[in-house]
Design a protein that fits this description.
Blueprint lengths: L5 H4 L12 H13 L5 E6 L5 H13 L13 H8 L5 E5 L6 H10 L10 E6 L6 H12 L5 E7 L7 H4 L3 E5 L4 H15 L5 H10 L4 H14 L7 H8 L4 H12 L3 H13 L4 H20 L11 H11 L4 H18 L5 H13 L7 H17 L1 H20 L15 H8 L1 H7 L4 H6 L2 E4 L5 E6 L2 H7 L2 H15 L4 E6 L27
């Protein structure tokens, strides 16, 4: 006899066996008990939450010869034939492959004929959002006013794709994601019925990996049991089979990122790769790990939001207190962006490595969140004293390197003095002279307007700002500027500094610089 998958073998037969959808099954069961059935239902929700299962239970319940508290009895001829798939009263249609107008016209023709047995003909249209526009239009009239013996049950994972005209003709039921606790309870029951042994921690991890879908959880459990037949299913076994990583690894990775240890972070990644873990799932799980830390750091009672075993909660909360919310948000944003990009990437490891370097080195980024992270790094270094030690250790060598890099000073006093046209030539080369200066002298030169005094013997620097003028009057700055000019022109220049008088704010006010118009562009800062 062929093997039956767990999610098919243990499909619920009554409303009471359906997990996680109490509001939906309670309403439907009461409708069956009171014979207040609607002509059209719309079941919405993510995959594996029980839409098709509840539709089949409802189809058996409305046709059952002796329902028990709104549930199908499972013993009568109608229940057995519907369960076996031989009844002509229940018609299942996959709209993904039967989405044309002709397929819907066949249904419209069939509804004219009443059932030969039972009370209702039930049409279950799965993935109904896949129907074409023409098919929806062909279904509208029949869906609005079907015969009294016809019930339509439409199931979809994407209700937003349905036309409003369809939505308004149906009773809508939203199927929610099933909680980790409910899935774990179901998995525990099924493993006992299968005669298999499993750790509670292992089943809980499978439930969390299913992401609210009972069918996915049963498929994962089926896969794990098949890998270790006859053996006790442990937490480490599940991690190995699913290609996922223990939270202890994420803790080590986060500590390496926080301390800026690029080598440590890459070693954690290399260890993960060598163990054969799925890299895309690794990024997703790390993002969820960061999300849990953020919630533990941000809410007053994190226990109700976190899917963590009670024995690990205290340690997890202590670790959360070591991370600032702003830093965690930055990490989550970067990892979420990586999750979207890595899905179809061929070099997944390279992309993860680059991302880890970004996390460890916030100075490589310029956005606001990275700036906050850089400030945090500096504060931690200042608190530990390592920053001061680095500065003290680096200052002498840096000074020596700077001294080696600086050119030999030009002895300006030994050069011939620039006069008249030679001074005007100096003014023409002003942008080059400014660009060759070092800070802070360069800042003061950028706001100066070069000119030649009336005697034609001095270079005149005119400033609008009193602070820049007084700073440039410093003998050291004047001497440094003379050295720059001597290096550029080979001439010694006498320099005078003055503050611009009111009403002399344009180049036209200085006839000496008329020859520079169109040759030199100087930006003046008020």
């Amino acid at each position: 006899m062929s093997y039956t998958a767990l999610y098919r073998k243990f499909r619920p037969d009554t409303f009471d066996e359906v997990k996680g959808q109490v509001p939906v099954v309670t309403t439907l069961r009461n409708q069956v008990k009171s014979s207040r059935m609607s002509h059209a239902y719309l079941f919405c929700g993510t995959r594996g939450t029980g839409k098709t299962t509840v539709a089949k239970i409802l189809a058996r319940a409305v046709n059952c010869e002796s329902p028990v508290d709104g549930n199908p009895c499972g013993e009568c001829a109608m229940c057995r034939s519907i369960a076996a798939g031989t009844s002509m009263n229940v018609i299942e249609i996959d709209a993904a492959s039967n989405n044309g107008v002709d397929n819907i016209r066949e249904i419209v023709e069939e509804v004219r004929y009443s059932p030969t047995e039972g009370h209702y003909k039930v049409y279950i249209i799965d993935e109904v959002h896949m129907l074409s526009t023409g098919a929806f239009n062909a279904l509208l009239k029949t869906l609005e006013e079907p015969p009294s013996y016809v019930i339509f049950i439409l199931a979809t994972t994407e209700a937003h794709k349905l036309p409003v005209t369809i939505l308004s003709r149906c009773q809508r039921y939203d199927f929610s994601r099933i909680t980790v606790e409910e899935i774990t309870e179901r998995l525990t029951d099924l493993t006992q019925r299968e005669g298999a042994e499993a750790e509670e921690k292992a089943l809980r991890y499978i439930a969390r990996a299913a992401d609210g879908a009972m069918r996915d959880a049963l498929s994962l459990l089926d896969r794990c049991i098949a890998f270790y037949p006859g053996e006790r299913l442990t937490y480490d076994n599940v991690l190995e089979i699913l290609g996922t990583v223990d939270t202890e690894v994420f803790g080590r990775l986060l500590r390496a990122v926080r301390t800026g240890d690029v080598g440590g972070a890459l070693r954690v990644l290399d260890e993960t790769v060598m163990r054969g873990r799925d890299l895309a799932q690794f990024v997703v799980d790390f993002t969820w790990y960061l999300r849990n830390l953020l919630l533990a750091r941000s809410v007053e009672a994190p226990e109700e939001f976190l899917e963590i075993a009670s024995e690990q909660m205290e340690e997890f909360l202590a670790e959360a207190q070591e991370n600032e919310p702003e830093t965690l948000i930055r990490y989550i944003n970067i990892c979420s962006d990586l999750t979207n990009r890595i899905r179809y990437a061929s070099a997944k490891r390279v992309m993860i490595e680059v991302t880890l370097i970004r996390l460890c080195r916030p100075e490589t980024e310029t956005d606001y969140s990275a700036l906050l992270d850089r400030v945090r790094h500096l504060e931690e270094q200042l608190a530990s004293g390592s920053f001061v030690q680095q500065v003290q250790a680096g200052t002498p060598s840096a000074a020596k390197e700077q001294m080696r890099a600086e050119p030999e000073p030009v002895e300006a006093a030994a050069l011939p003095q620039a006069l008249g046209e030679e001074l005007r030539a100096v003014a023409e080369k002003w942008p080059a002279i400014v660009s060759s200066a070092a800070s802070p002298l360069k800042l003061y030169l950028q706001t100066a307007r070069p000119s030649v005094d009336e005697s034609g013997s001095r270079l005149l620097l005119v400033y609008r700002d009193e602070f820049d003028k007084s700073a440039m009057d410093n003998p050291a700055h004047l001497e440094a500027l003379q050295g720059l000019i001597a290096k550029q022109t080979g001439k010694r220049v006498e320099i005078a500094v003055e503050l611009a008088a009111k009403g002399r704010g344009t180049m036209a006010a200085y006839p000496d610089l008329s020859a520079l118009k169109g040759k030199v562009e100087i930006e003046y800062v008020d």
